[in-house]
Amino acid sequence: GESVGLHLPTLSVQEGDNSIINCAYSNSASDYFIWYKQESGKGPQFIIDIRSNMDKRQGQRVTVLLNKTVKHLSLQIAATQPGDSAVYFCAESPGGKLIFGQGTELSVKP
Amino acid sequence: KAGVTQTPRYLIKTRGQQVTLSCSPISGHRSVSWYQQTPGQGLQFLFEYFSETQRNKGNFPGRFSGRQFSNSRSEMNVSTLELGDSALYLCASSPTDPRTGTQYFGPGTRLTVL
Asked: Which has fewest Cβ within 10 Å: B45, B53, B79, B101?
């Protein structure tokens, strides 16, 4: 079986509520940030990205906010649905390679 | 367009053996990156290839190597397997330089080392 590893932060929300997932990044030189969603047994799926010259970007039901002063990134999901249940990773890109955060497990209660 | 494909999807090996994993990027993508995902360490960058050249490398021992072919397909090889190499190995492709373009992931190859 799986070995014991990182204990992922968990966010539990009611269906229809808004979700906010937070992430702190480490490298001041990072100029590109991405949020990925990973469902069990699948590879990470791109959700939304933002460059360092922006502080907010909106997609369909999702918004990413970037605060470079405190090196913080957040993902807001509007009207969360059961299909949004997954592990969400932020990633920073200081020069091509992606450095991933530990991930947050989002659980949506119907 | 077809997504990133990885073969095989599952693999079981024993300690000391070697393994080769394959990745076919999205058509037209020239950059391929490899990542290792484990419960203990999360997602970690292995290396990135662009136009057949390794351009970035993570902090993994020399037992981990890779290459990219002229059609952008990539392989990674792990020699002298250790139990700790058990992981999900993910390949991601990017249409341009990954410093400016989004990386799209394949489903991964689940490697189990016994």
From this structure: B53
